[in-house]
Amino acid sequence: MPHEQPTADDRVETGDHPLSQAKGQVRARSNVCANPNAWGLVPGDILKRYGLHYGNTTKEQAQEMTYYEPCSLCKRTYFTVQEEGCDHPICRRSGVLSAVDAAQRKRVTRTGNL
Q1: Average pLDDT, stretch 7-16?
Q2: H/E element holding 102?
Q3: Cys bridge to 57: 21, 61, 63, 98, which one at CB 3.0-4.6 A?
Q4: Are the C-beta atoms of residues 54 and 1 closer than 8 Å to each other?
Q5: What residue spans define the domains of the chain?
Q6: 39-77 pLDDT, tens per residue?
């Protein structure tokens, strides 16, 4: 199947709209699209899980493919490390927040207070 880039109508249909990019807003990407050739709209983790590699993946899909892959050092997923931080020394040297700093970031985000 040919790989088609999403059209403006596809992006609106899936919530991929400039207004949905504001920091802190909840965003969702729909897995439903009327265009059967719009493989650029399929989330990357779904492509990887089911071996659906149709054409070139988008930058967003490539990033999504890593969300649930375990870290080779701490064995936790990228998503978990970003949410909860990591205290593994090598992860910390690569710029990952410590568990304490990640918890503080969550608290500040949730309450607006340090």
Answers
A1: 49
A2: helix 99-111
A3: 61
A4: yes
A5: 8-64, 78-111
A6: 888 888 888 888 887 668 888 888 888 888 888 888 988
